[in-house]
Amino acid sequence: MEILIMVFFILSVTFPVLHLYHSLPWFREPNERSNNREAELKKWMMDHEQEDEKGISILVPCFNETGILETSIENMKSLPYSQLEVLYINDGSTDDTLRYLDEMLQLKPCKLSTDGQLSYEQVKETYQSELYPNIYVIDKENGGKADALNAGVDYSRNEITITLDADTILEDMALPAVNDTFNDDDVVAAGGMVHVLQAKSKHSSNRLSLRKTNMLLRVQVLDFLKAFYISKLSLVRFKGLAVISGAFGIFRKQVLQDVGGYRKTIGEDIDITLRIHEFIAKHKNFKICFISDAVGYTELPETWKDLTKQRLRWQKAYIDCIIHFRSFFGKTIFSKAVSFFYVFEAFLIGTLASYIMTVIVIVNMINSPQDLFLSYVFFYMFWIFLFGVIYDVVAIKQGKHYGFTFNRKDGFRLFSVVIFDIFVYRFVTMYFVMYGSISYFFNKKWNKVSRTGRKYHHKDSKNAA
Amino acid sequence: MGKKVVLFILTACTVLILGIISYVFQFTTTTTSNIVKEIDRNGKFGDRQEEISLMDGDPVSVLVMGMDTRAGKQGGQTDTLVLLTINPDSKSVKMVSIPRDTYTKIEGGIDKINSAYGIGNVEMTMNSVENLLNVPVDYYIEIDMKGFTGIVDSLGGVEVNNDFEFRTDHSDFTDENVHFPKGKLTLDGKEALLYARMRKLDPRGDFGRQKRQRQVIESILHKGSNLSSVTKFGEIAQVVGKNVNTNFNLFELWMLQSNYKEAQENITSYEIAGEDKTIKGTYYYMPDKKELDRISTAMKNHLEMNDQDPYAGEEKKQDSESRESKEGTSEEAEEMDGEESRNDQEESNEDKEKEETDSIKGENSKGAEERNTEGSQEKHDPPNEQKETETFDSEEKPVENSGDPNVAQVITKNWSPVPTSQENYSGVSFEKGSLDWEEMTAAISKGAGLQKNDMIVWWVSGEGLKKVIGTVTDKAQTNNYRVYVSWVDGAGYKPTKVEVLHENDQKR
């Protein structure tokens, strides 16, 4: 028992410590930040069409997205990139998403060619916007997100495919950053940096603000900083990034077709990333990147109910993929970083250990006398407090390194978020992990998180002005 | 690639450090909550335990209490009592076995010493041992049978030199049949327990048993002092778990192991000689007064207490292992009994011999009374005359061997009791404002020579049923006194002794 606890302790500490160190700038890979040119120079070159811009297709699957579409479209049409087409795929929405799109874009039917390599539900009609000729709409029968993406890939014409959620908006410099990274022909897929849309600051000097957010959003801001600037950054340096976030993923279209497109599953973003890993296994030069300068903002749940739905879905997706890719993991667990981290970190430590630790705590509570148990709890609290603070602080510093500072007035809010994160949020997420893993086997439903229906772009356009 | 190596080394080091920190923390808290049990005690030697420093290698005394409880249950009796004094400077240990049936004063009554635990647990046992031997007991180690076997086993067994062949079948305390041949033996935990507990088969009775117990303790000390690794220590701590309690904290145990281990090279054992006696159908062991004093002096010297007793040096040289019968004269014993040695054992003992039919309670009060009337010329029992002269000599002069550096001067006078108006006196009440309290404090002020309205009572503690020790000062707090007051039946409270203190040790 003692030994078991010790082993789990060591394992569960090793991974965070490893990522903590590995995410530091000192360990960055050469050419990681390919667009480290002066932003102004870059802008100037773009304005004067000096940039060699590769064609990019942005795919936005929509299922009942009326609330957020305006924000998305406002963002898409403002993106400063010449070789861009945007495809909204209406996945058989039951509300008036299509009518809304028509209103915003002035749609007219048009004929689009397909590659015919991927299969998906039948497409009813394809449209082009009269106002913005590079924006298209594909109206198809409902088939799920993966199905919609497959259709989008099939209809898209450009070399690079970007998949966005309907509630994701991109920063102006995101596409040029993608373009720079994909200058390297070996890059077949990449993850973009995702921040919390609700925390997007009006001031360009500090790009995040916690002012108008509730505690739940604030803690997710921190969570995303940790996930992207520590964990994902470290994993991608190990070539072990298992999840290119569905909110902002970048792929070479050819690769998506080569791996057979998206699989209809609860976690299609993990699935496609793992398939690309399988594909890379046969093509040694290919690699997956994390583009820290390609920044997107996505809307996050603002209520516990929605957060629960979202996190349970993520956990179910994790479990689904470990089952689906079990043979790949089995064969490559010690030879491929992605398998190793997926199985050991996400599954053994992230999932199984939370059950075991809970059992240990309960057993201790029952078996140990009061004072001893209290000392355990004290020890545990001290431990997660210290480590939690360090981890959070590093994440915030990392964000600063990549140009995301908080408003000066956010100091206290940030402090309270760190405390909330350490003493409340991590236990809640542990519960999500535990509950989601079990409920996967009973209920595989895709719980769609409702959008807030906020209008983000009005604010943004004002900022831009 | 080089950076990856740096990364892995960095991570490994960090995890290692974190692991060590948490292991140490875990171990400390677990062990502390399992084993370390601080006690709050008001012994006759005051705060000595807090003043001595194991870090500086001050000599310490440790009371080993072997409990006859089988698992980590509460209650039980102290089956074995061994007091050790450890002096790292002279690299020596002195060990005295206290027979469990020893007849002694226990908080207001007189009984077997092993019943102290039932009345007041560890604290009272320690107090009783201090009273019996007049040696401060700084630390205790309480260990039950399971803890004992656990320690012996994790030390890899103990080595003893058996001088008496026996076999433990048909014994009343065990079903095990183990044969213990004569000669050097290595015993595991269970065997060592049988070896240390067996009494009935030994023609020497309890003395044989005590000797075997000391052999086992010697071997444990020897083995324990050679423990080199923390992990071994941790293993023992794990094994003994709740079956061992001590007021050594972990740091002190660590210090004990590192600063005091050489002391076990030279161990001297003592036994308390005495007589068997049956009072009202109960068996008691009557310790020999002279023996007690001899041992007390030796141990105090060993503890380097400021004891100027002229017998001390001689005592040190004596071969102590010999068990002497009661051959010394009572005068000798009384000479060695310093005034401040408030040991009632002797008096009670003598009383016992005279009047065996008296109840134990009655004996006690009588004994106490007699002691407290020392110096008064009222009593004229022949044995007390010697004492009176003795006390007279020491009257009004600073007492060097009080063992308390705070005492500037000891005064014993023939105070008269404060007249009482209590009809049914039933012991000290400690109730402020009560008649008893008023009379008692009046006696204290009389002893201190202070007007009652110029006196602050800082602390009053009971010493048995009818005696109190009060710490008082004048209102200006310039003069500090410790006043010993006793109840005289039919007369009232009367001061028996006053210690002039350098400073008020009860002021908090």
- Helix count of chain B? 15
Which structural class matches the secondary elements of chain B?
alpha+beta
Give the count of structural domains of chain B: 3
Count every beta strand of chain B, where a strand is a DSSP E run of 2 or more residues.
Answer: 20
Assign the CATH architecture of the largest domain in chain B: 3-Layer(aba) Sandwich
Number of helices in the DSSP assignment of chain A: 15
The whole-angstrom Rg of chain A is 22 Å
Could you describe the 3D structure shown?
Chain A is of the alpha/beta class. Chain A has a domain at 1-29 and 167-444. Chain A has helices spanning 2-22, 39-47, 66-78, 97-105, 145-155, 174-181, 215-237, 253-258, 268-282, 304-324, 326-332, 337-367, 370-401, 411-439, 457-464; strands at 56-62, 84-91, 107-109, 123-129, 135-140, 160-164, 168-170, 187-196, 248-252, 287-298. A 10-stranded mixed β-sheet of chain A has the order 3-4-5-2-1-6-9-8-10-7. In chain A, strand 1 (56-62), helix 3 (66-78) and strand 2 form a beta-alpha-beta unit. The longest helix of chain A is centred in the C-terminal third of the chain and has 32 residues, at 370-401. Chain A is globular. The model of chain A is unreliable at 458-465 (pLDDT under 50). The model of chain B is unreliable at 307-401 (pLDDT under 50). Chain B is of the alpha+beta class. In chain B, a hairpin with a 4-residue loop joins strand 2 (78-87) and strand 3. In chain B, the strands form 6 sheets. Chain B has a 6-stranded mixed β-sheet, with helices on both faces. In chain B, strands 15, 16, 17, 18, 19 and 20 form a 6-stranded antiparallel β-sheet that branches. The longest helix of chain B has 33 residues, at 2-34. The chains are: A alpha/beta (465), B alpha+beta (508). At the A-B interface, helix 1 and helix 13 of A face helix 1 of B.
